[in-house]
Amino acid sequence: MVSVGVIVWLSSELMFFAGLFAMYFTIRAVVPDMWTENTELLNVPFSTANTIVLVVSSFWCQFGVFAAERFQPRRLGSLWQVSKWGMQEWFVLTYIFGAIFVAGQVFEYAELAHEGLTIAENAYGSVFILTTGFHGIHVFGGLVAFLMVIGRSYASKRFGHQEATSAIVVSYYWHFVDVVWIGLFTVIYILQ
Fold first, then answer.
1. Domain 2-191 belongs to what topology?
2. Where are the domains of the chain?
3. Among residues 98, 69, 74, 77, which one has the least CA distance to residue 87?
4. How many Å separate Cα 107 from the centre of its chain?
5. Average pLDDT per 10 consecutive residues for the chain, totaling 192 residues
6. Rounded to an integer, what distance in angstroms lies between the CA atom of residue 38 and that of residue 126?
């Protein structure tokens, strides 16, 4: 039931992001000249590196899910034996990469503000900050969820089906956030 509930909730989140994409394309169609001058401010190589960080975090997350499905909450060997890592180690690594992504977004916003592009500056700034900002808030929510799952795995006396299910549904959310970012990155940074 939890998995189905999360999938239904993610469907509503998909509609939310569809609305953001619609806003982006509508304003772009109405004011195309604004896109030409403002997309020059985007640091595409930096954003590409930041995107790679987020996409790689999805792989770490999935390795954590595989460990959770084996009911392995923590590593079975030394920290350097990555093949024996449990869910906690993989989720901590996912958390670190997710936090790096959010820090990268904050850095990018600061750089754009320094260049004069803010949410109040023009329609492009508003659309850019709203779409990427709402995504960043969703990533932050995922980071909180990872902390909760990791904490729950430490607190439980026996890592069982409920703990594994929590890890799995958090991975659904994380993969969803990654796919949405790939769409945003493609539209905003590649297609411009």
1. Four Helix Bundle (Hemerythrin (Met), subunit A) (1.20.120)
2. 2-191
3. 74
4. 16
5. 80 90 90 86 95 97 95 86 91 97 97 93 91 95 96 89 92 95 94 81
6. 12
